[in-house]
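Why predict the complex rather than its parts? Because the way molecules touch one another can change local conformation, and only a joint prediction can capture that. The input here totals 1073 residues.
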Amino acid sequence: MNEYEVVIGLEVHVQVKTNSKMFTRVKTGFGFPENTLTDPVVLALPGVLPVMNHAALDAIVKSGLLLGCEIAPLCKWDRKNYFYPDSPKNYQISQYDQPICLKGHVEIELPGAARNIMGEHKLIPLTRIHLEEDVGKLNHGAFESLIDYNRAGTPLMEIVTDPAMQNADEAFAFLTALKTVMVYGGISDCDMEKGQMRCDANISIRPKGQKELGTKVELKNLNSISYVRDGISHEILRQLSVVKSGGKIVQETRDYDGQTGTSQSLRTKEDAHDYRYFPDPDLMPVKVDEPWKARLKAECPEMPFDKQRRFMKDYEIPYTITSVLVPDKALSDYFEATVKLCGQAQAVGNWVTNDLLREIGKRGESIAQSKVKPENLAALIRLITAGTISTTAAREVFTEIASSGEMPDGIVERKGLKASASSDDLELWCKDAIASDPKALAEFKAGKDSAINAFKGPVMKAAKGKANPKLVDETLRRLLAL
Amino acid sequence: MAAVQIDINHLAKLARITLTESEKERFASQLGDVLSHIAELTEVDVTGIEPTAHASPVYNVWSEDVAQPGLSTAEALQNAPAQKDNMIVVPKVVD
Amino acid sequence: MSTPLYFKSVAELSSELSTKKISSVELTQAIIARTKAVDSKVHAFNSFDETDVLSQAKLSDERRSLGKTLGALDGIPIGFKDVISVKGQPLTASSNMLKNFISPYDATVTEKLKAVGALSWGRLNLDEFAMGSSTENSAFGQTHNPWDLDRVPGGSSGGSAAALAAGEAPATLGSDTGGSIRQPAALCGVVGLKPTYGLISRYGLIAFASSLDQIGPFTRTVEDSAIMLGAIAGHDPRDSTSFKTQIPDYRAELKNRKGPWKLGIPKEYFGEGLDPEVAHAVESAIHFYKSKGCEIKEISLPHTKYAVGVYYIIATAECSSNLARYDGVRYGHRSKEATDILDLYFKSRAEGFGAEVKRRIILGTYVLSSGYQDAYYVRAQKVRTLIRRDFLDAYKDIDAVITPTSPTPAFKAGEKAANPLAMYLCDVYTIGVNLAGLPGISIPCGYSKSGLPIGLQLIGKPYGEADLLALAHSYELEHSWGTRFPDLEAQKGVRL
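Output of the joint prediction:
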């Protein structure tokens, strides 16, 4: 393995989330009854013509801006001519030699040494991004195939990376990072199960130090981000074993089966298509000017990893918390809104990534749907910090807010959850707690400050949660100092 | 002028049209004649000339992303040579 | 002798309808009767629906009785070349590939005509997929020239021209890619207009060569042409190649624009291959314009001789791609012999397409194929730029170009069919106009000694239809070629 290095390039298709199709205004959608999202243009009936979707163009220019691409000032459409039953015109409208975006990069994060340690960051360079139209869906039976054209014509961005990745983990990280950017930008949800993101991989190996690339193999049918990683790993091993046993890599396309973890050859180079690309005479070229770019630039969100770095630096919250917050833009926005109101970033981070997520998960809600708004959570956290309620009590209040949307003060009043134990009771409970744990007492006296926490549990229990944690701490210390 | 030779088998394959032997012969010869006539184009000096993509340069012709009604499934399939379960039927497609 | 209803112009009929001298139903019945009487000889129609057109006529009469007439064309039956989509009607392109295809949508021009109350009348024959110059390439039998049934009406819009000439419709629509409106108009003695590329929407026109195709009207008079153009011209958001431009009142402008004009005679158009009777008729027309104070100037369009070659590269390249959709999968002819999907493509297309269509697809595939594209397709597009430039340079000093439409009057059926190249050269005067995207009109300018119509072509400036129509109108006002009609009764029927 050490004598060879691996070169991987990815070709990723991302469906743009628009209301209507790329070259006609019939609705887009997934999971609709067969052939209910068609019109004469989609079906390529005699006499129809394509018309560009303005929003799809916005989406690709925005994607280019997000990914640091060069946006071509002028680009055009080309016909890619080939016959296939899922392609109604038997040509696909695409962009051949003048794609709308060139170069650019995707920042990825590789797995760290441990789960709570941030891994290495790398920039994966892109070659190009262009727009094209999606094809219909073939449903294969025993002797026939059934064709559903609902998907045909949906806007598709084709993102091609440089052959710049070195292993399956990088490919996995690439797709995860790309998906987050696309979701942040409102471009696509990149749900691979719904066909919103699809990936083919080109893999080759070469002796370490060789400049020339080895023969590449194209791997298709990688239906999930995990299958991409598994398929690439499998292919690397396959190529290594071919070469080790003295064979030569054949340039071919292979079909990966995620269930069995095996691949088989689909076609070799001899069957390569002559696509006879030529400029589509039915469509006018696209000029992207500065005002257009400026308008979209203003809509571009902060990039996910930039946000992560800022969270760790400005809010001083741990990496693990940020890695839960950042991939979900709604969640990070919620976090920031709450911190703005109460300032307690660490506490907010904990509540959001544990309690809030658990609660909305239970209720099948989205962040937006949760009755726990930033105002509610901020108020709750302020109550805890002030020592007005204990953490235990706070959890009860939180669950109540999630049902009713009430502000915490009201709930605390109504349920009598204030940490209101009398100071006499508190003295008694603290004395009892100290007395019943001589081991902890000895440790504390020996200098271990954290031993004091052993007494707090029993005190709280006796107080039925209604003791002010600050007072508990003060009282214990005073008694222990005696 | 010698007629230009074309690979009629290759072209018929690309165009997905089965030609009979007699068609292949006839077309190859007729098209060879046409291409010889066309060969005169090589004598034109096209240095610095842009190919005409469109007569008048117009850019950014699009429409807004508002969904419009399409065809009903029945209309979509009304001319279908074979259909089943609201889908077009073809012989099984094997890659 | 008064002109029969079926030979009257749209303007006349419109006037008679509005003065209630006739009803749309009466007019339509007369058209239907005429069609039934003569179409067995002419074979202009692929199909027509009598019940449907009469019900449209009835609705028109109802509108008129309620004072809700939609315009000059309300109640007038218009024939449609069988490549222009009308919802619920066949759309066959005169091809076995689409023999049973019924369209589920209207072309934009169809919508526009319906919006002004015109009646959609029948499906008119053409060279299959608009590829041809004689209508002999139709899969449903050729159309015969009403002036001499042994001769061709021209093509590809042969049915549209012949139907009008024979009185089977007061006006028709055709399409023109290399001369397919103008040449049949000339051969059938009627007026045929190809507008500037982009003036009329192509949405709903079966595409042959996307950068060349345009829909246009066949009419008896230039005034009728102006009426039709006004109804169907205009920007269409569903056609990205349609142009945003002000549509003048073409009919009103006929009176307002009087010339005199500066006319150019391209020397390259008057050489070898031009029939002397055609040359003579065109020269007479030039003399006429001169006598009206027009300046006549000899010009040169130096790249003329390359036009046919350039056309056949570009048009076949585009059509090879445009016709890929006809594969027997979603609609159209599907071979019963197909055992697998590849077979389905190969055999359906082999069975569905005629020889000329196959030839052009093969040629188009060749000029686009790997290794040849630069030499053929790209080069042809560059020479096309030069052809357009020839015209635009000439237009610095002149207003219009005047030429014959066709090198010969109508030729006999079968005369050129065996030699594709000879057939292609029929288009030599019309083709450059499509390549340059300019408007062109053919008007009758005489008859041969044997009584065959001769056409005069006038070519205008981009979007200069108002001037072009006025120029044509000024000739027509002082000539009466359009009042002669073919005598179909005297000619024996010809076996289809």
